[in-house]
Amino acid sequence: MEREFPLCLKCDRGNLLPLSDYGRDGATITYKAWVCSNPECGFSIRIDNGEISYGKQIQMSGK
After folding, report:
1. 44-48 and 28-36 as β-strands: parallel, antiparallel, unpaired?
2. pTM of the model as a whole
């Protein structure tokens, strides 16, 4: 099955890719963040403790 992801409205070149994570109790958090596939753009939107933040650069975790 092929999926299409939304176009990034910031750069119009990349696609927004969904990222998932795990909560404190180990429960899966599906689509916690969306990041632009264009490395020059760096747009992201994410949910943390019920608050939505965007524009912050997503970085790899040291874990």
Report:
1. antiparallel
2. 0.72
Question: Which run of H or E residues covers position 28?
Answer: strand 28-36
**Is 38 part of a structural domain of the chain?**
yes
Which helix (DSSP H) or strand (DSSP E) does residue 48 occupy?
strand 44-48
- Tens digit of pLDDT for each residue in 1-38? 677 899 999 999 999 999 988 888 888 888 889 999 99
Domain range for 47 is 18-54
Whether the Cβ atoms of residue 51 and residue 43 lie closer than 8 Å to each other? no
Q: State how far the Cα of 26 lies from the Cα of 22, in Å rounded to an integer.
A: 5
Number of domains the chain contains: 1
